[in-house]
Design a protein that fits this description.
Strand order of the largest sheet: 2-3-1-4
Largest sheet: 4 strands, antiparallel
Strand content: 15-25%
Helix content: 25-40%
Number of helices: 3
Structural class: alpha+beta
Length: 83
């Protein structure tokens, strides 16, 4: 189910790995939202973006994820899960 979704890849970094404006200007960056403890970057082209981060030595706290079961739920129901 997760692989069937057309969701962007999320690349997460430590907030001090790179500043938000620089992250937004990276090749392939679609959305960058600084949160407490993380700097998530959404992209549909993770290869060039990861290469640029490596060239800038900005891989601190790197995580890469494609989609989640929550994304599947939202896609199928059109609403958020509330516990």
């Amino acid at each position: 189910l997760i692989r069937s979704l057309d969701v962007p890849t999320r690349i997460g970094l430590e907030p001090n790995a790179i500043d938000q404006a620089t992250a937004q200007a990276l090749p392939g960056a679609l959305d960058v939202k600084l949160t407490t403890g993380s700097l998530p970057i959404e992209t549909r082209e993770p290869g060039p973006l990861l290469a640029e981060l490596a060239a800038r030595d900005a891989l601190a706290g790197l995580t890469v994820s494609k989609g989640t079961l929550e994304d599947v739920f939202l896609s199928r129901t059109g609403r958020e899960y509330r516990a």
